């Protein structure tokens, strides 16, 4: 078992959100999770994959595409 399994509270802390956000991700099945009895755990690799999949990269500066002020 090389992967760490995180609690909802740990995931919320890592994401900088309230516990409600990871719980909503779980309820909407937007992130993979493991049920251990009545407890829910999120594998660290799944959290990393979720973050990578939802990362928005900046648009490179394109010359001539922006209008200049008069």
From TrEMBL:
Top-rank lineage group of the source organism: Bacteria
Record-level Gene Ontology MF annotations: DNA binding
Secretion signal, residue range per the UniProt entry: none
Keyword Flavoprotein attached: no
Pfam families the UniProt entry points to: HTH_17
Keyword Hydrolase tagged: no
Keywords assigned by UniProt, alphabetized: DNA-binding
Domain Helix-turn-helix: 5-54
NCBIfam families: excise (TIGR01764)
Protein name (database record): Excisionase family DNA-binding protein
Natural source organism: Streptomyces gottesmaniae
